[in-house]
């Protein structure tokens, strides 16, 4: 049992398809990008913050999380 799955249940009720889980994982990873950008912008220049955010989003393990099976641990990334 994973309590974070409760957050995805409403999306699954809207579209009961396994692809919804992958879309939700991708959206949650992307939703954390503004926080990374704001954090980096306080410490570096705007370009460096943008590059750090791009590196975060293009990081190989995140790409593999989205491409392959559903992992409930992905739901904790924006937290």
UniProtKB/TrEMBL annotation:
InterPro entries: STSV1_Orf64. The chain crosses the membrane at residues 20-39, 44-62. Keywords: Membrane, Transmembrane, Transmembrane helix. The keyword ATP-binding does not apply. This is DUF2079 domain-containing protein. The keyword Transmembrane helix applies.
